[in-house]
Amino acid sequence: RGEVSRRLADWGLDDVSFTTELVVSELVTNAIRYGNPPIQLRLIRDTVLICEVFDASSTAPHMRRARIFDEGGRGLLLVAQFAERWGTRHLATGKSIWAEIVIPNERS
Question: What's the topology of domain 2-102?
Fold first, then answer.
């Protein structure tokens, strides 16, 4: 989270820091829990902020309905709520899970 926060501050995107840190944290946690190393993160500033997490597993993530007392199972639901769009791209070496965060005043 610290590295993401520093990068966003460098880009002048403090307004989306909380949302981006949450989304990235959920994507990275999902990759650690269900994917395979190596795990990599890439942030791309465009008209939206693109957060990509790569891992070596070809298994696609899926949202599940967590029960009230479950400790986990809400990560992708949070990503879907806070990201403009999100999805999975399959690669020869695994997969990329990406999410787009709206940058205020960047969209026309």
Answer: Heat Shock Protein 90 (3.30.565)
